[in-house]
């Protein structure tokens, strides 16, 4: 602080700031006699290469030979780095007045001929909670890699302390120079195949630049070595980390030490700059995903049973066993109460005992589908048994033969009450979606769930015993109530039976809720892709987007034909409609314009410059279409890019007729129209 007070920043002659290329910073001071002195500090092994002298213990500068530099590296730098210390070299250089004014812009000449003063080892201790957080990530199936600008020995020591590197494991720990040598070919170009040979075993990347970090992130995301594509998360705090944070699936920026650029490029900001917060984010993310799946598992079971019972009962008995008000109460249980009960489960450590979901993981897994169908079979069996044989079981009058406006019957009240009881107990089953047997595990930690189940049971008692005609219910006896509760409790017992059945044996079960899959593309397009020897993943995504875009164009053409056919029926106004509005994609759904004097044609909206610029961005195609004027000049070549559907409905009257399409499906020719240019490009 004393030196800083004596020499404030405004007295500094020139400053060479630190960056990832220099890996050092230098400050130039002007002496009283007009000469200059430059002080430098930076990465020890890099700055030592620029030193030609070294200060001895006596304060004398002696020649610093390459052999001496190797001795300093082996005896000073490597022992410090192996203990996790970050080594920094301090050096200086004098610029005598007799040598004239130096060329300060020529860094190559300025940052050479230094005199080494010392090598300092700085300890940046690992936070106590970091090793445990990394261990929890690894247990959760998350691979932690360290990308740093430190010395490779320092990085290896810190990684060992954190638990990223374990003794006896065959993992890579390389620097940025070796990394680029392995991933680039003879021409210096990055090859994905070379990256795929490195990243699965890479754990530490030292002396790396921001470009190396971005290259590694992109290489892992684009890799197809493993069947499920990797989901990459990146942490960073500097401005240079912006590209990697933006490229990653999830970017974590530091809220305290992070720059504004890093925060802007990230998706999540860690307000405490703590790595353990990432583990909490993973837990909450998995918990939200599982909560949605739990709710869907419960809701779909109720929907399947309620729809089949209402439809079948109405067809056979001419009256639905579940009345309208009763269905409203069931819907309230199914939607509002169930969402509160199942979506408020707190995250637990058990969420970190399994691997993460894949990029295209279905929302409804095969295990969930087994539970939905299995419980639906049990509930339908019980309901139909009570519906058609309940009067004999309980020795009561049948409700199937009651007149239309007859008072409520005990028969249908038992059916309704049993249905609700089964939903209450099945709500407990829905808490587990991965085939766990103990459905009561942690149930009392969620007081909202317990309160909703208990409250729903109390309200159901009030509705049955005192609901009367509004709810189409009559009071039940204790024995009848016990039977209803017992049949509902049977859902828990049946759930154990369903869990016992292996999901792998049920080949007919299909998962649901996929993301963008290959099934969305026609089979002929997939065959063409498979015939290619080598295909890039980005190119495949581009082709999928183009196919989907062409499908949208086909739908627009169909809508245009329908509207044109509708307008042709409006013969009294046929001569008053402007021809331009007939050929405009944006105006084909508008009301026809009626004018007395059609002096000047109106330009369609799609011909506007703003509309052309916005149109490509609203589609998810990987390829941006050129402007309207460019499209019109392209040569006609059907499916020349091999990335669109093979059949496009012709837009002109003089086009050859296609079998299966009527003549009315052919639009009038308009060489300057957008559809004409689009067809020409396709």
From TrEMBL:
One Pfam family of this chain: Cation_ATPase
Keyword line: ATP-binding, Calcium, Calcium transport, Cell membrane, Ion transport, Magnesium, Membrane, Metal-binding, Nucleotide-binding, Phosphoprotein, Translocase, Transmembrane, Transmembrane helix, Transport
Enzyme Commission identifier(s): 7.2.2.10
GO biological process: regulation of cytosolic calcium ion concentration
The reaction(s) this protein catalyses: Ca(2+)(in) + ATP + H2O = Ca(2+)(out) + ADP + phosphate + H(+)
Spans through the membrane: 296-317, 372-389, 409-426, 447-468, 480-501
EC primary class: translocase
Superkingdom: Eukaryota
Gene Ontology cellular-component annotations: plasma membrane
Residue span of region Disordered: 598-682
Ranges where the Plasma membrane calcium transporting P-type ATPase C-terminal domain occurs: 545-593
Record localization: Cell membrane; Membrane
Signal peptide (UniProt feature, chain positions): none
Topological type in the membrane: Multi-pass membrane protein
GO MF: ATP binding; ATP hydrolysis activity; metal ion binding; P-type calcium transporter activity; PDZ domain binding
Task performed by this protein: Catalyzes the hydrolysis of ATP coupled with the transport of calcium.
Family that this chain belongs to: Belongs to the cation transport ATPase (P-type) (TC 3.A.3) family. Type IIB subfamily.
Name of this protein: Calcium-transporting ATPase
């Amino acid at each position: 602080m004393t030196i800083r007070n004596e020499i404030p920043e405004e007295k500094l002659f020139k400053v060479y700031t630190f960056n990832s290329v220099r890996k050092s910073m230098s400050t130039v001071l002007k002496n009283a006699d007009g000469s200059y002195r430059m002080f430098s500090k930076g990465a020890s092994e890099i700055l030592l290469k620029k030193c030609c002298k070294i200060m001895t213990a006596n304060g004398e500068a002696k020649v610093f030979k390459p052999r001496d530099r190797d001795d300093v590296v082996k005896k000073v730098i490597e022992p410090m780095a192996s203990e996790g210390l970050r080594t920094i070299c301090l050096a200086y250089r004098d610029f005598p007045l007799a040598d004239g004014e130096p060329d300060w812009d020529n860094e190559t000449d300025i940052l050479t001929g230094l005199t080494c003063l010392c090598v300092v080892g700085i300890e940046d201790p690992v936070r106590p909670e970091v090793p445990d957080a990394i261990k929890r990530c690894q247990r959760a199936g998350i691979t932690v890699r360290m990308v740093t600008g430190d010395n490779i020995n320092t990085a290896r020591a810190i990684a060992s302390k954190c638990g990223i590197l374990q003794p006896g494991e065959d993992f890579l720990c390389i620097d940025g120079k070796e990394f680029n040598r392995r991933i680039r070919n003879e021409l210096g170009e990055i090859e994905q195949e070379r990256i795929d040979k490195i990243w699965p075993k890479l754990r530490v990347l030292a002396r790396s630049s921001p470009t190396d970090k971005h290259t590694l992130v992109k290489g892992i995301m684009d890799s197809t070595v493993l069947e499920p594509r990797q989901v990459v998360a990146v942490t960073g705090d500097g401005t240079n980390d912006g590209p990697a944070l933006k490229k990653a699936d999830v970017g974590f920026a530091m809220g305290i030490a992070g720059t504004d650029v890093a925060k802007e490029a990230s998706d999540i900001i860690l307000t405490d700059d703590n790595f353990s917060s990432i583990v909490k984010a993973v837990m909450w993310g998995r918990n939200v995903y599982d909560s949605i799946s739990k709710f869907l598992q419960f809701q779909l079971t109720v929907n399947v049973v309620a729809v089949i019972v209402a439809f079948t009962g109405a067809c056979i008995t001419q009256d639905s066993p579940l009345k309208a008000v009763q269905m409203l109460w069931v819907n309230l249980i199914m939607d509002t109460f169930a969402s509160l009960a199942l979506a408020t489960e707190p995250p637990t450590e058990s969420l970190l005992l399994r691997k993460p979901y894949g990029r295209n993981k279905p929302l409804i897994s095969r295990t969930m589908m087994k539970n939905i169908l299995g419980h639906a079979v049990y509930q339908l069996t019980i309901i139909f048994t009570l519906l058609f044989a309940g009067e004999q079981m309980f020795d009561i009058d049948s409700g199937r033969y009651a007149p239309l406006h007859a008072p409520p019957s005990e028969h249908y009240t038992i059916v309704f009450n049993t249905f609700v009881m089964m939903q209450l107990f099945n709500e407990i089953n829905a808490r587990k979606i991965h085939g766990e047997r103990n459905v009561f595990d942690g149930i009392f930690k969620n007081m909202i769930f317990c309160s909703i189940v208990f409250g729903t049971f109390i309200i159901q008692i009030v509705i049955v015993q005192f609901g009367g005609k509004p709810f189409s219910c009559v009071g039940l006896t204790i024995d009848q109530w016990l039977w209803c509760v017992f049949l509902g409790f049977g859902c828990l017992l049946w759930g154990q039976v369903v869990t016992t059945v292996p999901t792998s044996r049920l080949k007919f079960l299909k998962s649901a809720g996929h993301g963008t899959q290959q099934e969305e593309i026609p089979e002929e397009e997939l065959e063409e892709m498979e015939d290619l020897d080598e295909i890039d993943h980005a190119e495949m995504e581009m082709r999928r987007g183009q196919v989907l875009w062409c499908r949208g164009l086909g739908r627009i053409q169909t809508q245009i034909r329908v509207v044109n056919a509708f307008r042709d029926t409006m013969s009294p106004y046929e001569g008053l409609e402007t021809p331009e509005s007939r050929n405009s994609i944006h105006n084909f759904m508008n009301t026809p314009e009626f004018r007395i004097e059609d002096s000047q044609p109106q330009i369609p909206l799609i011909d506007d410059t703003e509309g052309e610029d916005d149109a490509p961005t609203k589609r998810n195609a990987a390829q941006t279409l050129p402007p309207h004027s460019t499209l019109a000049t392209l040569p006609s070549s059907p499916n020349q890019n091999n990335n669109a559907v093979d059949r496009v409905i012709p837009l002109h009257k003089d086009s050859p007729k296609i079998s299966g399409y009527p003549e009315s499906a052919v639009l009038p020719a308009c060489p300057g129209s957008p559809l004409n240019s689009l067809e020409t490009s396709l």
